[in-house]
Structure formats: C-alpha cells, structure tokens
C-alpha cells in the first residue's frame, strides 16, 4: 500500500488530546462554564466545525461508533465530510442510526431519539459567549460569569418582548445550567432546549475559532431563561412530517416546485427513515418502490 | 434623624508616583445630605470622587460605608462581587457624559429596568411598569420607553441616566458634573429635577462640580479643593457668602454676574 | 432663659484678594432675646447689623464668641455647630426672612413659601394651603402664586420671603429689612404678623430701616455702634 500520509489516531497528536481532555474534564466539573483551550489548526477552515472535530478527536477510541449530523441530516456536505474524515484518520465505525452511535457530532440540532447513558453528544459552536452581542468586551463578560451577573441576559429578552410582543429568540436560546452558569446551547432551535435538561448523555460543546470548550454532564438541570409572565415555549408545527407523519418533532420546510408547493419534513433524517422503515407514512410518504410496482 | 453617618472618610489619599491626586481627605456624610466638591481643573475633585465610588483604589486612608444591614464596611476591603453589587443597588453614579452611564443600543425601558433584572426581578410587566413610572418622574414622555437613547437629546439622556440610577432606591448617589455640557435652559430643568428627587427620596449625594451655582442650588455642604487638598469646608451658603481662604475668595469672586 | 443669647461675638473679614486687608466688623457683641419680644438692631448703614443677623443664622462664620439657641431646654452654640447641626437648627429653631430672595428656576412662589413648612414634616397640600393663606394676607396676587418668583418685582419677592419666614413656628425669627420694599398697606400687614408671632412667644431679632415700623414693633433696641471696632486712623 502506498501510504503518502500517515495520521496519528484521530489526527491530533497525543499531547494535544491530553490538553483537550483536561479542558473537557474541567468543563464537566463546572457545568456550563467556558473553559479556554489551545485550539489547534485543523484541516478545515474556522466556521466548519473545528471545535466539535477537536473534541471528538480527543475522546474517540477505536471501538466507538460515530454519527455526524448537520441540521439534523446525515447526508449534507458537512456531515458527510466530517464522517469521512474520522473514518480515514481513526478508522472507526460510522453510522447514521442514532441508537447505534456512541459519539454523535452535531451542527445545530439535537436528535429526536432520546439519548441514553454512554452516548456523547458533541456540539459545534460558533460563538460560545451568550452575552457577546450585548457586551462586546471579553473582560466584562468574564466578570459577569464569575460574579453571576446575568441581568443583561434578561435585558435582551426584555427587548425582544418590547419589540415583538414575545421573546423572539428562536435559536441559540440562552439557558442556565445547574442553577449557576448561563450558557449558549449553540445555534440549535429552542425547540431542542428541553432535550438538554436531565439528559442521560454527556453533552460537550466545542468552539474552535473562539477556543472554548464547555459541557453539560448527564442528569444536569438546564433551564431556559424567561420571564414569569412570558414563560419559555417551544415552537409548534401545524402539520406532521409529510413523509413519516411524525408529530412533536422539528420540521424543515422543503420547497417542491415553482408554484409554492412545499412540504414539512423531519429535520432529523435518521428519525424519519426509521419511522418509515417501521411503516409510518405521511401524506407524501408513499414508498417509491411500492408506487412503482 | 438617624444616629449614624452613612459614610465616614478618613485620611483618603491617592498618589500617582510622586504626583498628588488627592491628599488627606476626611469627612462624614449623613443620610439625605448633599455634599458638593468644588474646585478647578487639577484640584483633585474627580480623583476624590473616583476613590469614593471605588472606581479607583486609594493609596492611603479608609472610607467606611454603612451597609443596608447597618454594619460599617471599609469600601476598599469589599470583594469585587460585593463592590459591584453595591454599585448596582445601594449606589448610583451619574456620569458627566450620559453615554458613559447608559447602554446606548438598548431601549430606554431596558436601561431603566436593567438594574431590576440584575437583582432578580423576573416579571416583565412589573419591570415595564416601574420603568414607565420612572420615565415620567424624570419628565421623559412615556411613549419613548422603547426608543434607544441614541435618539435622545443630551438633556433627555441625562435624565434617563438619573432614572436608571435611582430605580433601585439607592441611598448614596455620586455625580460628576451632572450638568456639564448641557444647554443652560436644559441645565436649569435638570437641576430642579435633581433637587426635587434628592429631597423626595432623602438621597445622600456627593456632587463634583466646578460650577458654584450648581453647588449653591443642590448642596447643603461644600468642600473646596485645590492641588489635591480640601482647603475649606462647611455649610454651602456659609462658604459661598463668607469665604475664609484666599483661594475660596478667589473662586467666589470670579463668578460672573448675569 | 432667653431663646437667643449672643455672647461676646467678634467678626472680621480678611480680604485676601486685596492684599489681605483686614476689615473688622464687630467685637464683643452680647445681647439676649427673650420669648415674645422683638429686639431691633439699630445703627448706621455698614455698622454690621446685617452681619450680626447672618451670624445668628450661621450664614456668616464667627471668629470668636458664642451664639446660643434654646433647643429642647438646652442652649446650643451655633457658632461651633457642625454643618449638619446648623441645618437642623435652621429647620427647627431659627427662621430667617432675608433681604433678597434667591430664586430657584421652576419652583413656584407657593412652593418656595411652603418649603420650610414641608421640611418640618407637613404634607404637600397642607403646606401649600398655609402658604396660600399667607400670600393672600400679604396681598400677593393669586395669579403669581404658580409662577417662579425670578421675574417678580422687589416688593413681590419681599412678600414671598416674608411668607416663607412666617409659615413655620420657629421659636426664633430673624428679620432683615422685611418691609423695605413694601407699601403702607403691606407694611401694616407685616406689623400685624409680627405682633401675632410675639403673642405666640417667638423671639424676634430684626433690622428695620423704616422708623415708623421700628418704633411700632420694637420692644428693645440694641445699638450696634457700641460693638463697632474703631479702626485707628
């Protein structure tokens, strides 16, 4: 075999992995707290999940089974590339089935299927600091976290209600972790926030460009911020999934033609396929094979 | 009348290497008293104000503040968390430039409500009602509650800054040239507003100003500073009408009569 | 026990801006004022009458001596009082009808008059009502009550000053030329008001340049020239 390039297992050198694991341990010890780490240059540009990739690379072992999703789908470019990357540098088994994975790296969604003990969810995070857009100074936001001064966070929510009549934030909705740190859950839809609360899985968050790692250990309290008279609410959808008929899941809108035809389908592709494999059908979910025969 | 002062300052001094910021300042401040610190540029009055409000750490001396629970604490022994909490609840600081004391990119209502949210208020309706109430108390039209201070005039911004500071019922307010830079007619309105609020709320205040007319109008007591030292102190009308020290006499005589 | 006892008070002005010229004003000033009497300070212009009044109010400092005011059965020395104590004495014990009204922008004449009464604990409405009564008595036109006094005539400002001084029940009242800008009608009103205060037991110390008024209200005259310091020629 003509081996042009030789990769250390999971690409990163062992010292880097140790450094990142130490950061991860710190993060687990202080749920929601952003731990700075020495983010490495990865073979993909910033903004493509370098933080998530570094976290996964540090925890993955030869017996792990990896699933990668992007906006809930296993088959988008980003997910495909990262999965292929780890297949090459770690030679681990990969899967699209949520239930079979031990590590799930995700961009902007949490799988619909409930996660179990032993699974790890690795989030890709662009801006880890929930207060950044209100307070641009890093020196100030660090103090605010240290002193638990989160009034400003509620100022943002107040502004939403004043402007829009309701809290308008629909993704990256800030949460309070274990009653102490306010955290940005990454740009997942607020629909997914309740899944973070008391999850059996370990949730790890990596921001490569911003060089921060944070974590929510299993069975941790994660509460979305709100007002007493404007409580937190998740999005609801008026129709079930057009393919599998699922309700109570996050749906994507897909434009079908130039005449305004559209359908709503599960954002979580694995969940949708799984349901259809078990016979569930939505209004557009006729099996092509069945139709043909 | 309360039996104990609100603030006890003893030998407060601030040096910058060999340069004097302020030296050996001592005084007591009682609830409801307004103390004006006057002096010209370089007198040390702003340094003193910044030391008192703990924005600066002094080189020597103590400033003991009577906390809400009655205990006296040396301000310079407070932890950062305690200090910041004090600044958000029991104290106010009105900056000369209102933009320094406001969040310019959030609405007036949010500016006033922020301190309430910072101490745990979680009811939108009540926060908004309190903000509306304070806007009217500082004579800002209530329909401006959702406007950003970027759209306000200087006088309005200053009044908004005052509302933002007073919403948590502080007992002590620091003011740095509160009317500096405002048009004369706007100044008059602001001074009258401050006078009324200080009286109605029983606020203690320390006001730095170079304008003796502002001191006359707002303060009960006055300290005159020169070259970092307090050279004369006493009842405001006494210091202005019967100045003893040469420098005080110079200051008083320099006021232009209109 | 007198309500006011001035003991051996001396005052000089040092004009530092004029090469430190020392202008002695008065020396060894001593007199008492009892409850219910009006003592008038007399003497030529510039002899120090107004200065004495201002010292008794704490507006001027005292070089030496004591200015004792009766408070809760004790005599308190205003000359050595702290600013805080002085303010308390002004609020509770000694009132002052000054010669000139220092106006505050935007505060109405009614509120200027009501203020000392409010400082004693009266409510807004009660204080304003009493202020209105006094201003009406002094014949200040009602249309002026809700205006800030800055644009008033001298006589109108004087009447605001008088009302402000008379609205409370301070045991000691200082009057600095209270009738100087008034017409005969209002002078008579002020004389009446002084008589009422006397009857109520107030100790009054005043300066009146009008001989008629002075002779009507004065129970005793203290000639300030006896306290003047003769500068050697």
Rg estimate of chain C, integer Å: 18 Å
Question: Segments of chain C where pLDDT lies below 50 for 5+ residues?
Answer: none
Biggest sheet of chain A, in brief? 7 strands, mixed
Mean pLDDT of chain A: 92
Proportion of residues in β-strands of chain C: 25-35%
Total helices of chain C: the number is 7
* Outline type of chain A: globular
Instruction: Going across the biggest sheet of chain A, name each strand in turn.
Output: 1-9-8-5-4-2-3
What gap, in angstroms, lies between the N and C termini of chain A?
46 Å
Number of helices of chain A: 8
Strand portion of chain A: 15-25%
Secondary structure tally: strands of chain A: 12
Largest interface (CB within 8 Å) is between:
B-C, 24 and 20 residues
Write the layout of secondary structure elements.
The complex is a heterotrimer of chains A (293), B (258) and C (233).
Chain A (H helix, E strand, L loop, with lengths): L13 H16 L5 E2 L13 H10 L5 E6 L6 H13 L3 E2 L8 E5 L12 E5 L13 H9 L4 H14 L10 E3 L3 E3 L9 H4 L5 E6 L4 E5 L5 E3 L26 E5 L6 E5 L2 H9 L10 H5 L1
Parallel strand pairs in A: 2-3, 2-4, 4-5, 5-8
Antiparallel strand pairs in A: 1-9, 6-7, 6-10, 8-9, 11-12
Helix pairs in contact in A: 1-2
Chain B lengths: L6 E10 L2 E11 L4 E5 L6 H8 L7 E7 L5 E3 L5 H10 L1 E4 L13 H11 L5 H14 L16 H13 L5 E5 L7 H18 L2 E6 L2 H7 L2 E6 L2 E7 H6 L4 H8 L5
Parallel strand pairs in B: 3-8, 3-9, 6-7, 7-8
Antiparallel strand pairs in B: 1-2, 1-4, 4-5, 9-10
Chain C lengths: L3 E12 L5 E13 L4 E5 L6 H9 L6 E8 L2 E4 L5 H10 L1 E4 L11 H11 L4 H14 L16 H13 L5 E5 L7 H16 L3 E5 L3 H7 L2 E4 L10
Parallel strand pairs in C: 3-8, 3-9, 6-7, 7-8
Antiparallel strand pairs in C: 1-2, 1-4, 4-5
Helix pairs in contact in C: 3-4, 3-5
């Amino acid at each position: 075999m003509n081996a042009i390039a030789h990769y250390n297992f999971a690409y990163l050198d062992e010292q880097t992995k140790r450094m990142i694991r130490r950061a991860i341990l710190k993060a687990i010890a202080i749920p929601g707290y952003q731990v700075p780490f020495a983010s490495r240059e990865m073979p993909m540009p910033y903004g493509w999940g370098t933080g998530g990739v570094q976290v996964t690379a540090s925890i993955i072992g030869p017996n792990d089974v990896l699933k990668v999703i992007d906006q809930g789908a296993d088959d988008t470019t980003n997910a495909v590339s990262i999965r292929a990357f780890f297949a090459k540098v770690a030679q681990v088994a990969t899967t699209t089935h949520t239930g079979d994975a031990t590590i799930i790296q995700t961009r902007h969604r949490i799988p619909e299927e409930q996660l179990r003990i032993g699974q790890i969810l690795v989030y890709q995070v662009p801006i880890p600091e929930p207060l950044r857009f209100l307070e641009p100074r890093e020196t100030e936001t660090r103090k605010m976290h240290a002193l638990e001064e989160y009034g400003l966070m509620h100022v943002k929510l107040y502004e939403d209600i004043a402007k829009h009549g309701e809290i308008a934030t629909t993704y990256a909705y800030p949460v309070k972790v274990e009653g102490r740190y306010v955290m940005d859950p990454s740009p997942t839809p607020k629909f997914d926030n309740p899944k973070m609360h008391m999850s059996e899985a370990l949730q790890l968050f990596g921001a490569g460009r911003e060089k921060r790692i944070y974590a929510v250990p299993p069975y941790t309290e994660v509460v979305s911020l709100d007002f007493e008279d404007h409580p937190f609410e998740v999005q609801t959808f008026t129709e079930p999934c057009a393919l599998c008929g699922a309700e109570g899941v996050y749906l994507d809108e897909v434009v079908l033609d130039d005449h305004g035809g559209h359908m709503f389908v599960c954002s979580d592709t694995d969940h949708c396929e799984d349901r259809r494999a078990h016979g569930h059908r939505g209004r557009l979910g006729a099996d092509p094979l069945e139709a043909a025969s | 009348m309360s039996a104990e002062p609100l603030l006890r300052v003893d030998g407060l001094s601030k040096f910058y290497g060999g340069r004097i910021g302020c030296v050996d300042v001592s005084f007591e401040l009682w609830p409801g008293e307004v103390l004006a610190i006057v002096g010209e540029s370089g007198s040390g009055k702003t340094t003193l104000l910044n030391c008192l409000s703990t924005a600066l750490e002094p080189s020597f001396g103590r400033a003991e503040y009577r906390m809400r629970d009655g205990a006296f604490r040396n301000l310079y022994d407070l932890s950062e968390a305690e200090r910041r909490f004090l600044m958000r609840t029991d104290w106010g600081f009105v900056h000369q430039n209102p933009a320094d004391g406001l969040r310019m990119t959030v609405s007036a209502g949010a500016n006033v409500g922020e301190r309430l949210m910072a101490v745990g208020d979680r009811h939108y309706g009540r926060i908004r009602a309190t903000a509306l109430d304070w806007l009217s108390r500082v004579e800002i039209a209530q329909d401006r509650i959702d406007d950003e201070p970027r759209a306000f005039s200087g006088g309005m911004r200053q009044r908004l800054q005052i509302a933002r500071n007073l919403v948590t019922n502080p007992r002590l307010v620091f003011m740095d040239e509160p009317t500096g830079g405002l048009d004369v007619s706007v100044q008059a309105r602001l001074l009258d507003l401050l006078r009324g609020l200080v009286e109605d709320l029983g606020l203690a205040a320390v006001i730095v100003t170079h304008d003796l007319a502002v001191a006359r109008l707002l303060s009960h007591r006055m300290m005159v500073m020169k070259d970092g030292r307090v050279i004369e102190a006493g009842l405001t009308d006494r210091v202005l009408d019967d100045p003893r020290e040469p420098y005080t006499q110079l200051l008083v005589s320099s006021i232009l009569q209109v | 026990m007198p309500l006011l006892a001035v003991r051996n008070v001396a005052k000089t002005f040092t004009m530092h801006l004029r090469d430190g010229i020392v202008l002695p004003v008065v020396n060894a000033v001593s007199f008492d004022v009892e409850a219910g009497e009006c003592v008038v300070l007399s003497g030529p212009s510039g002899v120090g009458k107004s200065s004495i009044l201002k010292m008794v109010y704490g507006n001027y400092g005292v070089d030496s001596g004591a200015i004792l005011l009766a408070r809760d059965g004790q005599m308190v020395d205003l000359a050595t009082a702290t600013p805080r104590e002085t303010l308390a004495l002004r609020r509770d014990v000694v009132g002052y009808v000054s010669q000139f009204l220092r106006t505050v922008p935007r505060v109405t004449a009614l509120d200027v008059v009501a203020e000392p009464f409010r400082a004693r604990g009266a409510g807004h409405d009660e204080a304003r009502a009493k202020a209105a009564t006094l201003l009406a008595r002094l014949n200040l036109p009602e249309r002026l009550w809700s205006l800030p006094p800055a644009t008033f005539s001298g006589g109108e400002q004087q009447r605001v000053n008088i009302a402000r001084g008379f609205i409370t029940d301070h045991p000691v009242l200082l009057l600095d030329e209270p009738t100087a800008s008034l017409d005969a009608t209002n002078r008579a009103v002020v004389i009446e008001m002084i008589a009422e205060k006397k009857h109520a037991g107030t100790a009054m110390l005043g300066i009146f340049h009008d001989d008629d008024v002075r002779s009507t209200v004065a129970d005793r005259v203290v000639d300030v020239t006896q306290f003047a310091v003769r500068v050697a020629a």
